[in-house]
């Protein structure tokens, strides 16, 4: 279940303008007294990065300080998580991460942090479904034809992903299991470079977030084979799900959470969480993201317990999938 967004006329540029003119003096007395770092595990320009930057700009309004995005890429997001776990717990470092927080313990035999124990859990953020897209000149015109193509061409098909541990990697593993053919997976440092490779025709397929792919789908620069959520999307109403098209039960949606180093003061956690909630409740701030397919979770998920419980469930869900795929990232 997701909250329905009201239509609004504000644009992304409008958000930036509003943020630079509307910082409130109310919080200037106490925390925060300096800019806050929001660590992003993937490269600039990818969906996680875009989400962090857009939210950060809006959150700065109520925090009275800027939120500075720091991209710490590599090792499937584990470098960023490890960095955050070790950062000073002073309220000035937060991490935005996605399903990778739940897949890392199964993918990495040597992980320097425990996702379920070594952090403070602030809130879930937005959910973003994915699309399975192909290079513009890939012969199959629809998913049915793609299935036949995959069966006959097997490991000659290159499926790009945003790095071991990325959700696009998880999607590619699930796809291989569901379709029952070997596909060659090609890792990149994030969706930005993976998408560029697809647009340049260097790889055949990519499963990635709508927030990154919809502009290219609309411009017909890529082929669209289906959405990965269990139900169709408002942003792409005529596009069938993969589940509808023969992969019964296929369901991959990217969810995001905000974490802080263990021991971060309660006041900082609450203020950062409150600023996030305000941003997500402001349709003018989130309209661009929801137009690109992002979904705002219900209020109960926008809480520390909402994130922690979800992380536990997702860790249990993915661990057997990864073990079956027999893939380790280290
Ligand atoms: N979309 C990427 C993933 O598959 C990450 C990113 O570049 O934002 O996890």
Automatic annotation (TrEMBL):
Which residues does UniProt assign to the signal peptide? Answer: 1-28
Q: Does rRNA-binding count among this protein's keywords?
A: no
One Pfam family hit: TctC
Keyword Ribonucleoprotein carried by entry = no
User: What are the entry keywords?
Assistant: Signal
Q: Which PANTHER family match?
A: BLR1237 PROTEIN, TRICARBOXYLATE-BINDING PROTEIN
- What family does the Swiss-Prot or TrEMBL record give for this protein? Belongs to the UPF0065 (bug) family.
Question: What name does UniProt use for this protein?
Answer: Tripartite tricarboxylate transporter substrate binding protein BugD
Species of origin reads Verminephrobacter aporrectodeae subsp. tuberculatae
């Amino acid at each position: 279940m997701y909250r329905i967004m009201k239509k609004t006329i504000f644009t992304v540029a409008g958000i930036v303008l509003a943020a630079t003119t509307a910082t409130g003096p109310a919080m200037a007395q106490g925390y925060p007294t300096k800019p806050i770092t929001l660590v992003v595990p993937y490269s600039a320009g990818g969906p996680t990065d875009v989400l962090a930057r857009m939210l950060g700009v809006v959150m700065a309004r109520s925090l009275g300080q800027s939120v500075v995005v720091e991209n710490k890429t590599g090792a499937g997001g584990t470098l960023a998580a490890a960095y955050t776990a070790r950062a000073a717990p002073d309220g000035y470092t937060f991490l935005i991460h996605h399903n990778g927080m739940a897949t890392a313990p199964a993918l990495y035999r040597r992980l320097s942090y425990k996702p379920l124990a070594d952090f403070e859990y602030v809130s879930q953020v937005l959910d973003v479904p994915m699309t399975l897209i192909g290079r513009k000149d890939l012969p199959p015109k629809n998913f049915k034809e793609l299935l036949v193509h995959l069966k006959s061409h097997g490991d000659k098909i290159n499926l790009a992903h945003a790095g071991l541990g990325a959700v696009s990697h998880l999607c590619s593993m699930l796809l291989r299991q569901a379709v029952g053919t070997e596909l060659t997976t090609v890792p990149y440092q994030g969706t930005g470079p993976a998408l560029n490779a697809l647009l340049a025709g260097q790889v055949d397929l990519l499963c990635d977030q709508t927030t990154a792919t919809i502009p290219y789908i609309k411009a017909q620069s890529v082929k669209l084979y289906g959405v990965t959520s269990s139900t169709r999307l408002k942003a792409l109403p005529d596009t069938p799900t993969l589940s509808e098209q023969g992969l019964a039960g296929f369901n991959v949606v990217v969810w995001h959470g905000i974490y802080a180093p263990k021991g971060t003061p309660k006041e900082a956690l609450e203020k950062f969480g409150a600023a996030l909630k305000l941003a997500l409740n402001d349709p003018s701030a989130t309209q661009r993201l929801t137009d690109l397919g992002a979904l705002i979770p219900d209020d109960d998920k926008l809480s520390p317990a909402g994130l922690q419980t979800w992380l536990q469930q997702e860790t249990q869900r993915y661990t057997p999938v990864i073990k079956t795929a027999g893939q380790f990232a280290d």
